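Supplementary Text 2. Reproducibility record for the structural model of the 196-residue chain.

All settings were left at their defaults, and a single model was retained for analysis rather than an ensemble. We include the record here because the model underlies the residue-level annotations in Supplementary Table 4.
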Amino acid sequence: MKAMLTLVIIVLLIGATGFSCSKKAEQDQPETDLTNKEINRDLDGGEGETQIADNRVISAITASCNLAEYPVRNLWDGRLSTAWVAKGKPRGIGDWVQFDLKGKYLVQALEIAPGFNFIKNGTDLFTANSSLRSATLTFSDGSRQTCEFDGDKREYSIPINVRTNWVRLTITDIYPGVKWDDTCISEMSLKVAGED
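Retained model, structure tokens:
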């Protein structure tokens, strides 16, 4: 008998409006790009860091690009003052980030801050940089879910409810930044329940 264990992988404030999602089954699996760097992080935290992920569930987080100043690890550092910058493709459209899980889990929701959700020296980095307008979530069973963001709301909790070994978010459209072309995401997390 398996006990249902609900884990919050990364802490984010939860929002529930301002987006729309749709699912459709797809036969194609995402291609594996062997040139992408796998990002394995000590998920137990370190000196001066808050423990924000559970290494019993996540095996790796990978991305299509990983800039030194704005690395993919910023997605789960628990701070809105940092961001991952999708800059591998023009304006970030087509760039992706993937959470690989240590088994097949029921992923209940994706929590995301779809832009650089921070004000620095009086500059609103959310509007200064590009933010997500839409993205596609792809799962290990081949299904997909399209999500749209309204451009104003800064944090979302997107219901998923799919049993999967991994979740990939691919940027499909953006709101252009008023100052910079960088497309940013401040935080991402998964809510999961019990392993198969």
